[in-house]
Design brief:
alpha/beta; Immunoglobulin-like; Rossmann fold; 3 domains; four-stranded antiparallel β-sheet; 23 strands; elongated; disordered N terminus
């Protein structure tokens, strides 16, 4: 009986051993990482219950000690200096030591959304000038972290991935929009840039939104439950937030860039509220009101009547409801027969210029195209006033895609002229125009721009 007793006892001891016998780190901490400058940033991980973990940061040679909780977790905050590097961070426990090398301190941005954000230089038909762009992608102070696709019913504490230095080899499979965004930032700010990419092609906004939003908003919950299955992405609410976002929310970021909306066009009526709630929930999870810059979806030949332009108009409108946000319009780079425009350079550039102006105060140029402000009926004519309209002009002999409606609500094509950076409209079919719509078609590629060469957003004045 003795041997059997000892075997059972031994197995019981093994069963009650803590899950974390050694110091371990989440995958978001690895060699080549970038952490946010001039901040209190969290470092965290797992170890044996009650174990003391010693953390040493080489930029200030400070030593921090923290004891692991009963849940076998530990977390500390450290101060980061101005941008620089490379540095090392060591994590030492009773049984092991982990040393992270080639760590840079700079600006960290999250890039998320669906396929146009996920799109790389070598995805399908790639991007404009792909061969040259790949060849020149040697930027040792730009770092990439790609979160592999994961879904979960519950919020996860870790995600797969590792930081990589930007080289032609790593750039060619990374988000092209995010890369061009970082290249512009790095060139202007001259600091290391870290990019975290967690986009998933075809994904609706519902899957990126935490469960708490649906618990608190019955209309959004009912709408989310009706999302139809697709071959491109999971559609169950919160699945990608749980699997690809929650685990990195303690990781300090400078802001988020977002390119999504195509998969929500059938639910445009709730998209504005959903998108606003999603942004709020992310900021709450991170504990910071970071900037959130997004791309208005491009014109495309959807089969559904008006759904594409309706989403674009919602994206324009939520600019007023989401503080510290910005939107870039890309109607001029659209390929209406291909939902994936290959000109990712200008998308990344426009997002970067937004960040440089609004977040870093280091760019003096205009970063918005003309945005509808108000209309002034004037008898047989109606005046349209825009924000960001300095140097308003048309790229063509006639200004296209304006329509007006009178009291009956029926829209008719309008003649447009520019006067004092405003647009004056009239139509023989409408005696007294009261409302205006512009570029109101899924495939509309209008020709109204400002002096900065940025296109006007679609809108309806009702």
């Amino acid at each position: 009986m003795k041997p059997k007793f000892f075997i059972v006892a031994f197995l019981l001891v093994l069963a009650y051993q803590p899950a974390w016998a050694k110091v371990e780190l989440p995958n978001i901490f690895s060699d080549n990482m970038v952490i946010q400058r001039n901040e209190k940033v969290s470092l965290w991980g797992w170890a044996n219950t009650g174990e003391e973990v010693t953390v040493l940061t080489s930029w200030d040679n400070k030593e921090y000690k923290i004891k692991t909780s009963i849940e076998a977790k530990w977390s500390i905050e450290v101060d980061t200096p101005e941008a620089g590097g490379p540095y090392e961070i060591s994590f030492k426990g009773n049984e092991n030591e982990i040393v992270l090398k080639n760590v840079m301190i700079g600006e960290v941005w999250l890039a998320s959304g669906q396929s146009n954000m996920e799109w790389s230089a070598t995805t399908n038909k790639g991007i404009d000038n792909a061969e040259e762009e790949i060849k020149n992608a040697n930027y040792p102070n730009i770092r990439f972290f790609t979160i592999d696709r994961r879904t979960s019913e519950y919020p996860q504490e870790n995600i797969p991935g590792a930081w990589e230095v930007c080289t032609p080899e790593t750039m060619k499979s990374f988000s092209a929009v995010a890369y061009f965004f970082a290249r512009r930032l790095q060139g202007e700010l001259n600091v290391p840039i870290g990019l975290i990419d967690n986009a998933w092609g075809g994904s609706p906004a519902e899957v990126w939104t935490p469960k708490s939003v649906f618990d608190e908003n019955d209309d959004l919950r009912v709408s989310a439950e009706k999302v139809e299955e697709t071959p491109w992405s999971p559609v169950s609410p919160s699945q990608l937030y749980n699997g690809m976002v929650h685990a990195i929310t303690p990781f300090k970021i400078a802001g988020t860039i977002w390119y999504q909306g195509e998969s929500n066009r059938g639910r445009f009526d709730v998209y504005g509220k959903l998108f606003s709630e999603m942004v709020d929930s992310w900021r709450e999870a991170w504990g910071a009101d970071f900037p959130f810059y997004y791309v208005q979806i491009a014109p495309f030949n959807y089969k559904e009547s008006e759904q594409g332009v309706l989403i674009r108009d919602v994206q324009r409108r939520v600019l007023k409801t989401i503080p510290n946000s910005g939107m870039v319009v890309v109607s001029d780079i659209a390929t209406i027969d291909d939902i994936h425009p290959t000109n990712k350079q200008d998308v990344g550039l426009r997002l970067a210029n937004l960040a440089l102006k609004e977040t870093y105060n280091s760019y003096d140029g205009e970063v918005y195209g003309p945005l509808f402000k108000e209309v002034h009926p004037q008898g047989k004519k109606i005046e349209v006033v825009f924000d960001h309209s300095a140097g308003l002009m048309s790229k063509g002999k006639k200004i296209t895609h304006f329509e007006v409606a009178g009291a009956d609500g029926t829209y008719h094509p309008a003649k447009a002229i520019i006067k004092n950076d405003k647009v004056i409209l009239s139509s023989k079919e409408v005696k007294e125009p009261l409302n205006v719509r512009f570029a109101w078609d899924n495939i509309a590629e209008p020709n109204l721009f400002n002096a900065a060469g940025l296109p006007a957003s679609a809108f309806i004045s009702e």
